[in-house]
Design brief:
Layout (H helix, E strand, L loop, with lengths): L5 H21 L7 E2 L5 E2 L1 H17 L4 E4 L17 E9 L1 H6 L5 E8 L2 E9 L4 E6 L3 E4 L2 E2 L11 E4 L6 H11 L4 E4 L4 H9 L5 E4 L4 H13 L3 E4 L10 H4 L7 E4 L1 H7 L8
Parallel strand pairs: 3-4, 10-11, 10-12
Antiparallel strand pairs: 1-2, 4-5, 5-6, 6-7, 7-8, 8-9, 12-14, 13-14
Length: 273
């Protein structure tokens, strides 16, 4: 069977991510339908958008697997993520707490993996109307502008994206960075936004201890195609993803940034004992 050209998959990913925003913006402020076991929130719109995405992908590429943050809709019977060559990884609303409260930072993330490595990454930031996209070997773009990671100039503050979680390792890392001259914390409440902002040079780095594959699969391609580095929080490679292990249980700690900044911050993160 011939494989679909990357341009066709990219066009679909961009169309679906932007289209999701039309649904999402109609329901900003919707109350959570329930809280998950990890205390994250989910709304009916999360499920509605994911169903729209999954059905459109399955209709066009029924031989591709789909891995989403929410449960897949009934009636869709594609291959398992660990068996298919191509796997679409979806986060229908990244920044659901922001969406629920009306805080203007929430988006839709779509990645396409080829043998468990991202070849397409799309993040549609709906509140600002920015569309971030990247293809493996093809560079990274925000709307019509190419992106490049950036280190701060001498004497300039280093903006670092940080998570909201209060788990012990994160608090330990933030305590070290709080005492480090020049590091200024930023937290938008959206992991995908942090990765996209690193890719466009607006942040120097970003760190998180508790992420899932759908939080980072699209954004990490944005960063690497913009010249940055993405590893685990302890320096190990994240690719290829272990799709069987990463869904849905395991957390993926990561550190990303402009290469020199990444190398500077990495030794400050203690390995768990």
């Amino acid at each position: 069977m011939s494989q679909p050209p990357i341009a066709t998959m990219l066009d679909l990913a961009c169309e679906l991510a932007v289209g999701a925003g039309k649904t999402i913006r109609k329901h900003v402020g919707q109350r959570p339908s329930h809280y998950k076991a990890d205390k994250s929130v989910v709304t009916e719109t999360d499920h509605l958008v994911q169903e729209q995405l999954v059905r459109a992908i399955h209709e066009m590429f029924p031989e591709h697997a789909v891995l989403g943050e929410e449960n897949l809709p009934g009636g869709v019977r594609g291959p398992s993520p660990s068996d298919a060559r191509f796997c679409w990884v979806l986060d229908p609303i990244d920044g659901t707490r922001n969406f629920v409260t009306g805080f203007p930072c929430y988006g839709t993330c779509i990645a396409v993996l080829d043998r468990a490595e991202p070849i397409i990454g799309v993040v549609a930031e709906h509140a600002l109307g920015d569309l971030y996209r990247a293809t493996r070997g093809g560079g990274a773009w925000c709307n019509d502008r190419p992106m490049q990671v950036r280190a701060p100039h001498p004497g300039e503050d280093m903006l670092v994206g940080t998570p909201s979680t209060k788990e012990p390792l994160t608090l330990q890392v933030l305590d070290v960075w709080l005492k480090t001259k020049g590091i200024v914390f930023r937290n938008t409440g959206s992991t995908a936004a942090h990765l996209a902002l690193v890719a466009r040079g607006s942040m120097a780095a970003a760190f998180s201890k508790r992420c899932k594959i759908w939080d980072i699969a699209a954004g990490m391609l944005l960063v690497t195609e913009a010249g940055g580095v993405v590893t685990s929080a302890f320096g190990e490679p994240l690719l290829p993803f272990n799709l069987a292990a990463d869904h849905p249980r395991n957390d993926i700690p990561f550190l990303c940034g402009e290469p020199a900044i990444h190398a500077h911050l990495l030794p400050t993160i203690p390995r768990p004992t």
